[in-house]
Design goal:
The complex is a heterotrimer of chains A (177), B (210) and C (389). Chain A is of the alpha+beta class and 177 residues long. Chain A has five helices and five strands, in the order αββαβββααα. Chain A has a single domain, classed as Beta Polymerase, domain 2, CATH 3.30.460. In chain A, 29% of the residues lie in helices and 25% in strands. In chain A, a hairpin with a 4-residue loop joins strand 3 and strand 4 (63-72). Chain C has one domain: Cytochrome-c3 Hydrogenase, chain B, CATH 1.10.645.10.
């Protein structure tokens, strides 16, 4: 894996290389270089399998972190490529030409996070939700509990307790133990 | 649709449909079924209770326990219960666990297409109060706000034995003439429709799917 | 042999079929969600010409519960009972992967005996899931009795699970830090009895299904996946193995105790529905063999759980990881991101059906007879809840 990282460093600006396990490495790359890095890995380093593509909402930095996970079937190495993109104008170049299933991942990200992938097939069609008119539900600022209570007629009688104090009062009713 | 019929309360408006499609769909309001003379109705109820045909629509994870129920080990055929592939032929609808909004639309459509007499069994905790997904943005919390329910079977998942017990209860209710969910639905149609339209944002089907 | 008249098919422009629904040559047909021939609750929007499919769109989302969102607002230990609900016929893969991911980020080592029990649980659940699958697959081709037998034998396995873990469908057995309980007394004997029953069933299925002329005629040549499609569509699991790829997470990147077990990757060559059935059929025997191997290592007197910190206030340091395991459908993975708080920052579930049921199925289904669509779907072993979660 070290040699691959060395070779990558000659061509791309990569940072935050983190070897999580023997067979799992994460690295960060700039948004502009991401697609060419992924194409390079696929065509020349035999990372031929796109395991998944997903996003993490870094709401405090006003950023989305996209993670492209690639797998090399010859050395059985996983490589996660992190790309930070702007949260306000979330847009990323599409990789549907590299893998067929990438289009599906991008459709899901468009719907659940609101990240646009111009040119990706059927990216504007709804994938999972139907008639959704709120902010994309996987964003951190969407409150699912509030939405559910307002929309779906909660049945009265459901209580929630702080587990620590509740268990203490149930198990040791006479006081500290 | 002409102007005068718009104010006729016995006709459904079918607002969700585009203009050219309205002709294809029936816009009459459904009517409640009236019981016949006492002994005839009693005989009919006995007959209804002993041949329950359920709709084979696995709406959620509850469907996984219907397979053992249908097959050799628990064998529901010995109770006169048989799965049917289409709503037009079935009399029992099993809500198998949680219902997401997208599925709820199909549940309503399938339920309305079933002919009377029809009964609903809600399986698992999720249709009762949301269960594990009580705070989810995409699953409904109470199925009885959208379609009427005759029997609830609690559990996650309910075992095949408890589903059989639920069928037993349903049979008892039918024989006593108490499984009146379908009539309740027609009586309170406006309330149900308002609830349904609140969550189904793209209502593109007729108001009652005959 | 049936030779279709190609002149009636749509014209292909830029790799896409030109379909004019108004021409009267084509018919739009929905298969599902309320249809006995679909796997789970999903639907296919088919465009058919005669009785052959010329275009298809997969529609999923009927089972979306927003797991990933729910997990972001539950504590690490509260998440453990909900992850198994993602995949109903095979919940243990989810339990293991969630536990393994949390353990890896938190830096917890689990006792060896717990790993053996987890391996046993995973193999038993693989056999259980395959039994259900073979019943559904036979049913899709009109062989009803096999469904009756296989689901019943799956139920015998569920009885063992219930006795062992307390849960019939959802076991909630592998908690972060280890497993919940040891095997009950006499479990090995009852397990062996059940395995023998299943072996007998398999020999019967071989006669009735694998050597059935009608089944063979329909399944041979159905949904052929060529080798160059494997990487382009992200095909994993038994489907890739049926195309001759030696790809099995258990062997390639061993997890739990699989490196101590003796087994080979089962591969096929022809890569059609029949070959995929053969591969899975042999994997069921392999699973039975692995369960017998694992039972030799089970020792109920050993420690099965690591002591965790107070799980109600369990803060896990910031980090991210991806763990994977081989499920019956292929590589299943969990991508977990933590930020040092009591709640996970992001949990992403990678289900193998994601690529199989959408991108792959939409292309494989072209020119398939309508009657074989259900068989093709079960032969890909698509399972919708892991697509939409």
């Amino acid at each position: 894996m070290k040699e691959i990282i060395q070779r990558l460093k000659q061509q791309f600006t990569i940072s935050n290389v983190n070897q999580q396990r023997v067979d799992l490495t994460f690295l960060s790359v700039k948004k502009e270089q991401a697609v060419s890095l992924i194409s390079y890995l696929r065509d020349f380093e035999k990372f031929s399998h796109l395991v998944f593509l997903t996003a993490v909402d870094r709401v405090e930095d006003i950023q989305f972190q996209l993670t492209y996970m690639l797998h090399n079937y010859n050395t059985h190495q996983d490589l996660g490529i992190r790309v930070l993109i702007d949260r306000e104008k979330a847009e990323m170049a599409s990789i549907h030409h590299l893998w067929k299933q990438a289009g599906t991942y991008q459709r899901e990200l468009k719907e659940m996070f609101g990240i646009d992938f111009p040119g990706s097939p059927r990216v504007d069609e709804s994938f999972i939700l139907e008639g959704w008119d709120n902010i994309p539900p996987m964003r951190r600022d969407f409150d699912t509990k509030k939405y559910s209570e307002e929309t779906y007629f909660p049945r009265p009688g459901r209580e929630s307790h702080d587990p620590e104090s509740y268990m203490k009062s149930k198990l040791y009713p006479e006081g500290d133990a | 649709m002409t102007k005068e019929t718009k104010h006729n309360p016995s006709i459904l408006e079918n607002n969700g449909l585009p203009e050219f499609e309205r002709d294809y769909f029936c816009d009459a309001r459904p009517e409640q079924s009236r019981p016949l003379a006492k002994y005839i109705e009693k005989f009919l109820n006995w007959a209804r209770a002993n041949s329950l045909w359920l709709l084979g629509f696995g709406t959620g994870c509850g469907a996984v326990e219907l397979r053992p129920l249908m097959t050799a080990r628990y064998d529901m055929y010995r109770y006169g219960i048989a799965p049917r592939p289409t709503p037009r032929q079935s009399s029992v609808f099993i809500i198998g666990g949680y219902a997401s909004v997208k599925t709820t639309k199909r549940i309503i459509r399938s339920y309305e297409q079933m002919q009377q007499p029809k009964f609903v069994i809600a399986l698992g905790s999720c249709p009762i109060n949301g269960g594990m997904y009580w705070d989810s943005y995409n699953t409904i919390n109470r199925i009885d706000h959208y379609i009427p329910v005759d029997v609830y079977i609690a559990g996650c998942m309910p075992r095949p034995e408890s589903i059989i017990a639920g069928f037993d209860l349903l049979k008892k209710l039918i024989k006593e003439g108490q499984a009146e969910g379908a009539n309740k639905y027609i009586e309170n149609l406006d309330w149900y429709k308002a609830n349904q339209k609140k969550i189904i944002k793209d209502w593109n089907m007729p108001d009652y799917n005959w | 042999m049936f030779t279709p008249d190609r002149s009636k098919y749509p014209e292909i422009v830029d790799g896409k079929a030109v379909i004019d629904l108004d021409s009267g040559k084509y018919l739009k047909l929905w298969q599902g969600p309320q249809h006995p021939g679909v796997t789970g609750n999903m639907s296919l929007e088919l465009i058919v010409c005669g009785d052959e499919v010329v275009d298809c769109k997969t529609h999923v989302g009927y089972l979306h519960r927003g797991f990933e969102k729910l997990m972001e607002r539950r504590k690490f230990i509260q998440n453990f009972p909900i992850v198994c609900r993602i995949c109903v016929p095979e919940p243990d893969t989810n339990e293991y992967l969630y536990a393994a991911a949390v353990e890896e980020v938190a830096g917890i080592k689990i006792p060896e005996q717990a790993k053996w029990l987890r391996t046993l649980n995973m193999e038993m659940s693989r056999l259980t899931s395959y039994l259900m699958w073979i019943g559904g697959h036979a049913g899709a081709f009109g062989l009803g009795p096999i469904g009756q037998w296989a689901v019943t034998h799956r139920d015998y396995m569920l009885d063992l699970f219930e006795e062992w873990t307390g849960g019939r469908v959802y076991h909630m057995y592998m908690i972060p830090g280890g497993v919940r309980n040891i095997l009950p007394d006499g479990f090995d004997r009852r397990l062996e009895d059940t395995l023998q029953k299943i072996e007998k069933l398999m020999s019967e299925i071989e006669k009735v299904m694998l050597n059935n002329a009608v089944f063979k005629m329909r399944a041979v040549g159905l949904g052929i996946i060529t080798k160059d499609m494997i990487d382009r569509y992200g095909v994993v699991g038994p489907i890739a193995r049926a195309a001759g790829m030696k790809r099995d997470v258990r062997k390639n990147s061993p997890y739990l105790m699989y490196e101590h077990l003796d087994f080979d990757i089962i591969t096929g060559t022809k890569s059609d529905a029949y070959e995929r059935l053969l591969v899975r059929f042999r994997e069921m025997f392999q699973s039975i063999d692995l369960i017998r191997q694992i039972m030799k290592y089970i020792d109920n007197s050993k420690n099965i759980h690591t002591k965790l910190p107070n799980v109600l206030h369990w803060k896990i340091p910031a980090g991210e990881t991806y763990v994977k395991a081989e499920s019956t459908r292929g590589e299943y993975g969990y991508f977990v991101v933590t930020d040092g708080s009591e709640l996970p920052r992001r949990v992403y579930v990678r289900g193998p059906s994601y690529s199989h049921a959408v991108a792959l199925l939409e292309d494989l289904i072209i020119n398939v007879n309508i009657a074989d669509v259900a068989g093709l779907m079960t032969s890909l072993h698509t399972y919708p809840p892991e697509i939409e979660r």
